[in-house]
Amino acid sequence: MLKRFFGCIVIALSLSVGKSFAQLNESDTIRFQFRTGVTGIYQQGNVALLNIRGRVDLTLLLHKDLVFKSQSSSLYQAFYSVEADNDIFSRNFIYYKPQRKVYPFAITFVSTNYRRKIDNRYFAGGGFTYQVINTKINVLKLSASTVYEATKFANSFYNYSEYNGNNNINLWRGTLYVGGWSYLADKHMRLYYDAYWQPAFDNSNNYRTQLDVGLDFPIWKGLSFNVVYAFTRENVVIEEILQEDKILTFGLAYNLKSR
C-alpha cells in the first residue's frame, strides 16, 4: 500500500509544471505577471484513478492607474471511470491605483462544482483593499466587498429547509478577506495565505469560508517546490452533501514577470 501511495506521489510531481512563486501582487509596479500549472495522477490496477488540475493566474497593467488580475482553475477527477469532479473557477478583478494604501476594486466570479451539485454560480460587485504591510519581504492586505450572487443547484432539497423547492438561490453577500505572505529563514522559504468569509445579508445560516495556506521553497533561479493546504466550508448545501472539503497539494512552480 505504501509503495503504491508513494508511486502516486511521484507521478503527481513529475506532471507538475508552473510559472510563479506564490500569489501575484496587483500592487507591484510590474507590467505583466503570469502563472500557469497542471498536476495529474493516473493509476490503473486495484485502484483506477484519473486526476487533472490546472491553474492560470495573471496580472496585467492596463493603464498607470488600472490593473487587471485573473485567477482561474479547473479540476477533473474520476474513479473507475465514474466522474467525481468536473469543476471550473474563475475570479477576475479590476483595481484602481493599487499602489495606494487604500484602493477600490471590482470583481466578477464564475464557477461550477460537480461534487457539491452546483451547476453554475456567478457573482459581481465591488469593494476596497487596505494594504496593512507591503514590503519586499512581508505583505498583508485586508479587503471588504459587497456582491450579488446567483447560484443554480442540480437539486432543490437542502440541509436548511427554508430553501427547499428552489433550484436557484440569489442573494447579496458581504466578503471579508485577509491575505499575504512573508519570507522566512533568510528567504529560503516563503509562507503565504489567504482566507475569506462570505455571509449572506438576509440569512445568518447562509455563509461560506475558505482558507489557503502554502509554503514555497526556492530551488534554483525562480524554480520552487510548494505545498498548499486548502479548507472550504459551504454552510448551505444540497441534502447528503458534506459542508466541508480539505485538500493538500504539492508540486513545482516557476516565476515569470515582465517589467
N-end to C-end Cα span: 48 Å
CATH superfamily: monomeric porin ompg
CATH architecture: Beta Barrel
**Overall pLDDT score:** 82
Low-confidence stretches: 1-22
Q: Please, how many domains?
A: 1
Work out the strand percent.
over 45%
Give the oligomer, counting copies of the same chain as homo and different chains as hetero: single chain
Run of helices and strands: HEEEEEEEEEEEEE
Net shape: globular
CATH C-level category: Mainly Beta
Strand order of the largest sheet: 12-11-10-9-8-7-6-5-4-3-2-1-13
The structure class reads mainly beta
Can you tell me the CATH topology? Porin
Helix content: under 10%
Radius of gyration: 19 Å
Strand tally is: 13
Treating each run of at least 4 consecutive H or I residues as one helix, how many helices? 1
The biggest sheet amounts to:
13 strands, antiparallel
InterPro entries: DUF481
Protein name: DUF481 domain-containing protein
Signal peptide: 1-22
Organism: Chryseotalea sanaruensis
